[in-house]
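Intended use. Records such as the Sugar kinase entry shown here are meant for training and evaluating sequence-to-structure methods. They are not intended to support clinical decisions.
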Amino acid sequence: MKYAVGVDIGGTNSRIALVDENMNIVERTQFRTDAHDPIPTIVRLSEALKDMAGDKELVGMGVSCPGPLDLINGKVLNTPNLHDSWQDFPIAGEIEKVTGIPTYLENDANLAALAEAVVGEGRDYNYVQFLTISTGLGSGQVINHKIYQGAHGYGHEVAYAPLWRNGPQHGKIYPGGVEAICSGTAITERAKKAGLEVQHAGEVNDMAKQGHEAAMEIMDDAKEYLANFIAILIAITDPEIVILGGSVALKIPGFVQEVEDRVKEKVLTELKPYVKVRPSTLNEDSGLLGAACLAFEHAKDKEAA
């Protein structure tokens, strides 16, 4: 039996999992990320890997790290969750030096998309589009089990995609960017600016169902512009399935179905029968599974070469 390693380096905690060829997580652990210095985190990762791997045959390691990332060169760029020593740090190469295991860096949405395509709702399809609508809005596309990265590694970095002229803004996102309209944070912040006492998007949705006019408008905008964006993706890339993950998509009743209904109103007539917008059925381990999938896919490519 061969194994791959999935790693998720977060701003607070880092997780590592050993995954077998059948995509079962056989062992996992987590530890606190040193947000000021990547080296102690890499050392802890290496120690944890030795404890769980033993004499098992490891084909490689996939790593998710807060972005933005330079996926071509395996570097962390300028992430607000980790401090100066992490910036422009070649994390994939450094982990590979310490562990001796082939290491591949990817962003979390791409890895979640890969997990969906291999073991999730997209496992029966070759063209899989994934979107996560949660604190932010992320995207990934997988074609025949390969992540689409684009020419410079920034394929499907969609948060800034402009949809609404002079539209809502939050954080560094351009006014009217898709994340500034549809993410959970955006929904909540718009509601607070409208004078609503809410803590998360689910509460905004609850107020909308009760007939609160401002909440209804905010939720309608989120669904409408998300449907617009998905219709654009379908028009350009023609995926077989669009999978939605994240708390907004999965915890708000009827959200995914309503978005699918709206998408069908916006695509070419001939495409309507092919529109499939489905909720993710993977749990919070999608990133770890996707990271392991990435390592297995790279190993297969090496064997075939």
